[in-house]
Structures are given as structure tokens and as C-alpha cells.
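hey can u check if this looks right to u? its 418 residues, i copy pasted from the old doc so theres a chance i mangled smth
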Amino acid sequence: MHGDAAATFHRIGAQIVTVAKVKIIIHIGQHKTGSKALQSFLHLHSAALAQRGILYPVDQTVHQKVRAYRISHYRMFALLRHEAMHNCGQADAAQHFWRRQRAICRPYDCSRAMFDAIEDERRRIGADTIVVSAEDLFDMQTAHQIDLNMDYLTAGVKILSGLAQAFQYQPFVIAYVRRQDYLLGAHYVQYVKGSSDPTIEFKTFARAFTPRLNTHHLLACWAAEFGSEAMLIRPYERATMPTGIVVDFFEHALQQTISPAWVTPAPERESVNATPGRDQVELIRQLHRHRWFGWPLIRRAQILDATTAFSPGVAAEHGSTIATWLSPAQRRRLLLDHTEGNAEIVRHYLHRAETTLFSEALPPDDAGWQTYPGLSAQRTAIIIRQVRGQLFYGGNLKWIAAGALFFLSMAILVGILV
């Protein structure tokens, strides 16, 4: 779909009538670049956007238990990945994937059906722009997966490109990309937060995750189908977007300003997506390893709730940035591996004279950096008390019995987990 014009032309008699194409803006992530905050805002103001001729499809026909699926277009990713797996000859894997995704994707059984519904709604409200957003599209993987399958990505992007062409949409792809060291650290914490088996330690995760750090290689799959001229790449860093992703998206993707009357969505776990400290990450890992002793008396969600913005008194002794996992020297070596790929992103998509994608300076030398000492019995007890306090907050009688069990299990947990 390289070089699509902004309009199609129909000859009627001796006249040529120009028909403007409908734009479809496809926000593909990356993961851990504020996508939930953007999706929450677009979802909240979908009616106001429709008045501006912008459709952010919000499907109310099927209740989604997970809020992230309600506010984003995760179903588009799931449908595309399912079809991509079939196209790659992975029928058994596709069937296994579909068993877990079928309920989420209802009422659609294929990506074409979802596009049909989107087009029907676009025509109904008379919109000339469609916005869809799913960070899982970036590499056709969820944040809770590790291994990358480039065949699925290539096939999925090809299907999506074909759909845009079939509906005669003018596609624009926007991606916010994060520096590789920060991306690795954020992905690992997200994996521990949400995967079905978060016991994997960081070094093993980092080795398996390496292909997903090759941002240039992944973007090339999108450029091969949509063309680099249809892609907008924004570095995800404060220097580039000082007012945040929502304002940046409106300015650069929609070329619009946000109305002062539009409120910011109320903070909640998914839109805030707060990051626990390394002690909390280690406790979650160890609880899963020894879940026959203490699980589910302390659940992962309870630990995460106790470390979000809703508990301002909770402070992590050890942070959650990549600086708690890798030394400055290790981070510099990691970034060196991606220097040329990042420079290619600048040349192909940003068209800047300089070749530095990210403006933040490289981490300094190792002086003052300390290796993580491990989760101590004292810190374990503090986190458990924080969780207990969270359960008792507001006098929730439902958790009083569970709170009593914390006292009984604390000694056992402290002895087992460290």
C-alpha cells in the first residue's frame, strides 16, 4: 500500500470527481509507553470525538471483564494473531489460542467482521477519521509473552494492510518507542505483574526477550506493508513529549487540540498502571514459587494494589527502573547493540539530520551503583503489613477473616520467602 493518495478519483461523464479517503489511524504501542492512559482518554471522550468526525470505536454489545479490553482494541490484535497463526500453518497453535480468546473477541469471529462493524458505525455518525489503539499490535505479542514470532507479525500486518485497502481507508500508523534498557525493565515488571507463571528470573527473561528489543526490525515489518511515509514514530521520553502521550497524540496524530472541558479519566489500576518496586516483584515471584504454603492468602493483585497511587504512604526501598536490574555498564552495552538500529529509525521515519533517537544521556559509570541485596525478612514483613492495611481500608468486612490469616501466615511466609 505504498504511496496511497489521500483521495480516489471517479470519472462521471467529462468530469472527474474527487472522493476524499477516510483516514484510519492505527496506534500500535509499543508496550509500556502510556497506551492505557491514551486509551482511557479516547474511550472517555469517544462521544465528543465523534462530534469532531473522529470515530474511536467503543463496542458496548459485549461486556468485557477486563477494563483494558473495553477501552482498547485488543480484540483486533487477537483476531489478527489468530488469522496470522493459521496463515503460517500453525493450525493447532491457532486453535489453542482461539480457545482462550474466543469469548474476548465476541461477537466477531474474524478481523473482517470487526472492520465491517467499525465501518457501519463510521457511516452512521459520518466520521472521516477512525482511530484504533492496541499496543499488542506492535509485535503481535502481549506484554505477558516472551518469545517473538516474526512470521506472526509479518502475516498479521499484511492482513491489517489488506483490510485497510479493502475498505479504501488511508492508513497512518503511529508508534511510541521506548529506549531499549527502559523497555526491558518495564516489560519484565509487567510480565511478573500479569503472566500466568511469573517465577522466571530477570536474566532468563532478558535473554528470551532480546528480539523484542530490536525496534527497527519490528518497525520494518510495518513499513514493508504501509510504507514509511504512512508511519509516525515518536520517541517515548520526557524531552519529546513533556506534556504526556495524550496531548502528544492529539497534536501529532490527530492534529487537534484537546478541549479544556475534557476531563482526565479518574485514576485506577489499569490506566495508572503503577509499577511496583523490586521488593514487591521479588515477593510476587517467590509467592508463586511457594504458593502451596501461602497462596492465595496473599494474592498478586493485593500486593500491586498496596503499591499503587491509591496508597501514597507506601514507598519502595528499591525502585523498579532498569537501574535496579542492570548496572550502568551493562545498560551501555545493551544500548550499544541498538545504536545502528535506532539511527535507522531516525533516518527512515523521523528524517532528522542527527542520528540519535533518544536525547537522554547514557547512564554514567558504575561508581555508586549497588547490586540488589535480595528480599529481606524485614522488607517482606513490611510489604505484608501494607497489604493487610489495604484489605482493612474502609472497614471491608469481607477481608477481616483474611486479615486474621495474615497474622497466622506471616511467620511462615517470612521464613519461606527469603
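The longest strand covers residues 169-177.
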